Amino acid sequence: MTPPFLSIVVPIYQVEQYLRQCVDSILSQTFSDFELILVDDGSPDTCPKICDEYVERDTRVSVIHTSNKGSLKARATGIRRAKGQYVGFVDSDDWISPSMYERLIRVAIDTGADCVIGNGLRIPEKGKPRDFANQAPCGYYDKKDLFELLYPQMLGNKDLYGNRRIQPSLCLKIFRRELIENAHEAMQDSIVLGEDMACTYTSILQANSIYIMDKSFKEYYYRYNSQSITWRYKQNLLTQSMDLCRFLKNNPVGLTIPEYQRDIDYEICFFAIQAYYNIYLTSNSLLKAEKLAQLEELVTTTQIYDAMDKIDWKTLKFPNTIILRILASRNVKRISRMGSFLSAFRPLILQITKRIL
After folding, report:
1. What digits encode the pLDDT tens for the residues 274-287?
2. Going by C-beta distance under 8 Å and a sequence separation of 6 or more, which residues neighbour residue 253?
3. How far apart are CA 284 and CA 80, in angstroms?
4. How many angstroms separate the CA atoms of 234 and 182, rounded?
5. Is 55 left (phi over 0), alpha (psi -120 to 50) or beta?
6. pTM value?
7. Per-residue pLDDT tens for 194-230?
8. How far apart are alpha carbons 29 and 287 in whole angstroms?
9. 347 and 311 in contact (C-beta within 8 Å)?
10. Using alpha carbons only, how large is the chain's radius of gyration in Å?
11. Cβ atoms within 10 Å of 297's Cβ, excluding its own
12. Which of 352, 324, 330, 328 is nearest to 158 (CA)?
């Protein structure tokens, strides 16, 4: 049997209300030479049964039932099963337009690019859709262009709001299979948080060529529901985010690019702010002593303060400048008082965050 041109991997966990819309949107693609690999990550709801139903209905669909190990492991399982020349990903609570993969594949065939990068839309429960787009210039980049034009500006999160010039989401892209296999292999078990960032930027740094679609391409629909924008407490966020930044910073190609190294310093500061918010702006049951212990860990993380010394503070925007200045003091009591103040205004801050993001 001839292998399909494209393998589409969908990791699945506890999304029974959205899964059919996701899978139907994939099976409705105008490009049909693909296999769809559903990876049931030990979902405790009816998702396993729904997956089995689609296997019976369409020969392009296969399912892998596993115990719950998280989306990174689920994607890795799907990649190992993949037979296509290219691999794409869709999150199981999102959906795509009928022409998405036809347009991406056409570019891949015409240019031979190792990775084709598209854009999407954030679809909120209420209100208008918002762009989920890359800011880097569209077009074809060979290896020379990548080093001279893209790698130095690939991140660009200089206002510390997470608005990167290449969106880290794996789902907006297709990758040559060998490229994504190598990227996942490089990650191994070292990444727990930010696997999209780790895998996307590792792949781009390893690629010989990429193509960025223009902003008229908005064919991936990211479900931006209330859970997406509510701050949820994440245990070990500081340690895991610093592990992610260390992994990105030590990339062999990235080590040769000063601008990329500088941008990782901005990412370190970004995650330091997120770790602070994680203590005071999430719904959590932490005792005061536990919060203070986490602040002690934050102010003794030298990785953060080394990065603070290297960034240009003029690029930061309010309120991140204020928060970072407070963290820079390393005064735990002062930082704690500000955290308590922020907690009192949590609903207002969350509303502001919705509008920014």
Report:
1. 999 999 888 888 99
2. 151, 205, 206
3. 37
4. 29
5. alpha
6. 0.92
7. 999 999 999 999 999 999 999 999 999 999 865 544 4
8. 51
9. no
10. 21
11. 12
12. 324
Q: What pLDDT is attached to residue 284? A: 87
How many CA atoms lie within 13 Å of 5's alpha carbon, on the beta-carbon side?
A: 11
- Taking the C-alpha atoms of residue 136 and residue 92, their distance in angstroms, rounded to an integer, is 27
* Three-state DSSP string of the chain: CCCCCEEEEEEECCCCCCHHHHHHHHHCCCCCCEEEEEEEECCCCCHHHHHHHHHHHCCCEEEEEECCCCHHHHHHHHHHHCCCCEEEECCCCCEECCCHHHHHHHHHHHHCCCEEECCEEEEECCCCCEEECCCCCCEEEEHHHHHHHHHHHCCCCCCCCCCCCCCCCHHHEEEEHHHHHHHHHHHCCCCCCCHHHHHHHHHHHHCCEEEECCCCCCCEEEEECHHHHCCECCCCHHHHHHHHHHHHHCCCCHHHCHHHHHHHHHHHHHHHHHHHHHHHCCECCCCHHHHHHHHHHHHCCHHHHHHHCCCCHHHCCCCHHHHHHHHHCCCHHHHHHHHHHHHHCHHHHHHHHHHHC
One-letter identity of residue 40: D
Domains and CATH numbers, the chain: 6-227 (3.90.550.10), 237-356 (no CATH)
Look at the block and give the residue holding tokens 């296997």.
55
Strand order from edge to edge, sheet including 95-96: 95-96, 220-224, 120-124, 130-132
Query: Which distant-in-sequence residues (6+ apart) come within 8 Å of 214 by Cβ?
Result: 138
